[in-house]
Amino acid sequence: MIRLSGRLRSSLIIGLQGIRARKLRTLLSMVSLFLGVLAVVTVQAGSVIAQRALLADLELQRGKDGTLLMYLPSEQGASAITLDAVAGRDDAVAMTRAQAIIGEPGLRPVNEGGVPIDQAGYGPPPQMVCDDHGNCVEQSEQDDEPKPVGQAVELSLIGITGDVREFRPFRLESGEFVDFDSAPSLAPRLVINKHAAEAFAAYSVPAEMRITGASANPTPLIVGVVDDGGWGPTAYVRADELLNWTEPAGLSDPNYGGGIELLASPTATDLEQILRSRFAANDIPTEFQVETIDSLEQMGSQISLMRWIFLGMAALVLLIGVAGILNVGLATVGERVEEFALRRAVGTPRFLLAGIVLAETLLTGLLTAAAAIGAGVVGLEAASRLFASREPFLANVAFPWEAGVAGVIAGLVAGILGGLIPAIRAARIPIATVMRA
Amino acid sequence: MTLIQLTGVTKTLRGQDEARTILSGVDLTLEPGESVAVLGRSGSGKSTLLSLIGLFDRPDGGQYLLGGKDITRVPERRAAALRSAEFGFVFQRFFLLKHLTALQNVSMALVNGQGWLPRRKRRTTAMEALERLEIGHLARHKPPRLSGGEQQRVAIARALVRRPKILLADEPTGALDTDTGNLVVEALRATTDEGCALVLVTHDRDHAAKMSRVARLTDGVLA
């Protein structure tokens, strides 16, 4: 072991001496390799950052990887059973979905149907009203006199039984999220998404909140804004605050897809069985959909092909760098024939001569990798500062360690590939060179 | 004990057309502290003989005993270890590495993968070798700043730094003027006072006369 260590040290010492003696040549090798390693670092960093951004978006829209997602019915008392089943549990959150109109009383919302505010004005979609038997008719056929359009915004109203961010990592944009520690308020406290915030910025009359089937129209209190990855105006509210104004069945409006989403941690395996048992006991259909969110798998297939294509291109650039090292290495060995012959004459074994050349190219590769990684870090920091306002995923983005590792590996591989043939040549130089000189 | 014993050593070089015998039945013995001058015309096989003794190459026939051990067919790995431990080499051209100082040039023989010395020990040992050749004050100088005689003495210090038992010198004064050459030969001969055996290949009869024995190589035959 000591013997090996001595030889390793000898290689490194002589290799470093060689690099110091031929600084310009080392620099030229590094220049040719730099772009290749930088390409690998950039592709890897870009891939990881894109992966993180994509994963974050997927988690925002669907939920964290591994989360159990159940789509439950809301009819025939299922809402009440579901709310009761998750009450007091911190490993599951139920999300009810109704439609609400917030604004001046007696007016039609500017975005009828809850469409994004920038799509309002193209005419409202036909408003359908359904009875308990599933017979639906257009609302206009019911109303004798349509209400005038005014300062009101229609949005999806999501009642939640706990802090849903544990399962769907909403990004808080301003204010605070729904507080579950305090007693439920009579004025429902809303956290709205960015689309709703845009709508209220244009139509800011949150006088009352109309919910179909509610006993009265409460005045809401907007406490925060989140990015929930959704496409239309949405508000999140404590389900128990809504229950001050409506029955459990009213939390989920069958006219708007109405079922209940239940998000649970992977360990909450008992919940599905509890719900099926209670539904069965109340003659509610027990065939509801349960799935496990697999964002990583879904995302992996999306990004891996692109990553391989770019890595292939980076490998080509790296090969050009390797050719540069190889070229310089061969020229250097040719120039150092006498030195290597002399080293053999003083007892340096052949493989140590090869080791010296490899040590030089490996050190060159590592130095290049360090430079490329440094450039990557600086470049990312600069991109983050310059473009974060336009591309939010660049805000506060950290240089991924995977890109650093890829850069070091690329540098080492390039050093080995570029140094191998010169190393073999160096080891084959005959000692007699010093005698014939 | 006899340090080196060559018996009936032959060496043939195979060219493109025909083989050429360089050494033919060479017998040579060398005792500790003995100095031998090998004289001969150009192409007589002097350097080939030296390269066989120094294990740069292997003989085609005959036997080579080093300290009583047969090393005629020693493998390269073992030969490298023997070159490091037993031999010192001085060449006509000094083969100093231009990018290293005199001290580092001497130290390079200590960084050859045959054992490991800490940096401080390497420096001390190399400095001692330079001082033995009375050029310790040139330790920090790089070769281009040294005269031919100084460079050759640095090369001798490099050859002696591992305290070899045998010093092989291949026309070490060939690139030097007469006075400097005399100084170098005297420095080489002085090593025998410490028990080191010396084989000096030279064209110069005056230098050869300073050795304890003179051998003549004519057409591959040593007499």
Please characterize this protein's 3D structure.
The complex is a heterodimer of chains A (437) and B (223). Chain A has 437 residues and is α+β, with helices and mostly antiparallel strands. Chain A is built from 12 helices and 12 strands. In chain A, strands 1, 2, 5, 6, 7, 8, 9, 10, 11 and 12 form a 10-stranded mixed sheet that branches. Chain A has a two-stranded antiparallel ribbon with strand order 3-4. In chain A, helix 2 (23-61) packs across helix 10 (350-387), helix 2 (23-61) packs antiparallel against helix 11 (401-428) and helix 3 (78-86) runs antiparallel to helix 7 (270-281). Chain A is elongated and about 110 Å long. Chain B has 7 helices and 10 strands. In chain B, helix 4 (119-132) packs across helix 5 (148-160). The mean pLDDT of chain B is 91. The A-B interface holds A 2-3, 5-7, 9-11, 13-14, 17, 20-22, 338-339, 342-350, 352, 430-432, 434-437 and B 47, 50-51, 54, 56-57, 76-77, 80-85, 89, 91-93, 95, 97-100, 104, 108-109, 111-116, 158, 170. Chain A: It is a multi-pass membrane protein. Chain A: Residues 313-431 form the ABC3 transporter permease C-terminal domain.
Summarize the structure.
Chain B: Keywords: ATP-binding, Nucleotide-binding, Transport. Helices cover 50% and strands 15% of the residues of chain A. Chain A is built from twelve helices and twelve strands.
Topology:
The complex is a heterodimer of chains A (437) and B (223).
Chain A: H1 2-21, H2 23-61, E1 68-72, H3 78-86, E2 92-103, E3 128-130, E4 136-138, H4 139-142, E5 152-160, E6 171-175, E7 189-193, H5 194-202, E8 208-211, E9 221-227, E10 234-238, H6 239-242, E11 260-264, H7 270-281, E12 289-292, H8 295-335, H9 337-345, H10 350-387, H11 401-428, H12 432-436
Helix pairs in contact in A: 1-10, 2-8, 2-10, 2-11, 3-7, 8-11, 10-11
Chain B: E1 4-14, E2 19-30, E3 35-39, H1 46-53, E4 61-66, E5 69-70, H2 76-86, E6 87-90, H3 102-107, H4 119-132, H5 148-160, E7 166-170, H6 178-190, E8 197-201, H7 205-209, E9 213-218, E10 221-222
Parallel strand pairs in B: 3-8, 3-9, 6-7, 7-8
Antiparallel strand pairs in B: 1-2, 1-4, 4-5, 9-10
Helix pairs in contact in B: 4-5, 5-6
GO molecular function, one term (chain B): transmembrane transporter activity
Keywords (chain B): ATP-binding, Nucleotide-binding, Transport
Domain ABC transporter (chain B): 4-223
